[in-house]
Amino acid sequence: MNSSHCTKSRLCGGMRGKMEKTRTTWIDSLKGIAVCGIVMVHSNASSLPGLLGKIGNAGKNGVQLFFLLSAYLTFLSLEHFFHGKETPKAMTFRQLIPWWTGKFIRLIPLYYLALLVYALFQGGSTYWLGTQEHITAGNVFTHLFFLHGLFPHYADSIIGVEWYLGTLAIFYLLAPCLYKLIDSLEKSAALFLLSSFLCRILTHFIYRLFPEGVDSHIYSAYAGTFNFFAQFPVLIAGIMLYFLFRRQILEKIGKPKVFSYVLLVFSIIMIAGQAFGENSLFLISSETMFGLWFFLIAVSQKIFPPFWTDNKLWETLGKYSYPIYLFHFIVLSTYDKINVPTTGYLLLDWGIKYIAALLCSLAISVLLTKAFEQPAVAFLKNARAFRAFRR
Q: Does residue 327 fall inside a structural domain?
């Protein structure tokens, strides 16, 4: 790919000046809301009666919001890296290595630490290990190299939430190719529609490959959620966001505040229907449907983010959403082990557990980010720069 690629829909010139503004607070706020939903479902909110249980169970789909935003930010990162302020770079394999390295450097420190902590103190996620019963050397190897998403018994077997990183790693590897092939809103929309059907059919065939009976819960979850193809349409929806925002169509909308509220309320109603199993389309997975509603919510926030969805609380949780996501399970496990006295009221007991887990996870995340992740990332970046200098 050469600099002429900029003459397509990416519109290099006027957009470069906006790169610093693309990571706005509403993105972090949406991440904060997403991680709150994930902690909610893992704190057994789905066991609450009636409507509350349905809402609690829907919290697991916060991962789809993560995927949507990750895909959007990945394409922004590729644009900035290859068509930034400096002379545009050709998208060759050699030029891609620094980009890939940078993306994985940001993931590795906290991820490796989480693997160590969970392996030592939790012994892995026995539910997702199934008949394997314990963590093997092969399991550890695949996790260290982000290959665990390729194996059903490894995908979520140590931390209990790392399947997201296995899928994200595959997307990072494929993103440059997608960036080169998809160069317009129309192409991304067409791929979203096509993949929504084809990936659902493909996941069905993936499930049929596995034996029946033994570890069926693992194979079912892997085929329907944990494998890359199950999340591919949601990732493409994030790419659609990238091209939609680059078109600058939203800036031309009259009465943006009203339009944003209408879009947001509509999406929330659709999510409520999705949580109750009312919204369904033939051959479209629940994950893809949630991804579509989150796409509309992201559009509404880009147009006008109201205070109740974009504020300091959500933003702070969003900034630390990655370590919260990795370490909240061990916080919840510790809470259960210390036998906190109960009140006898299911909702109140759950609320105390949820808030305590969220606050403790946030405190741990702030500490780990400042004392461990930031120095580790800086060290890895400096080591990479030193090796590049010696060459």
A: yes
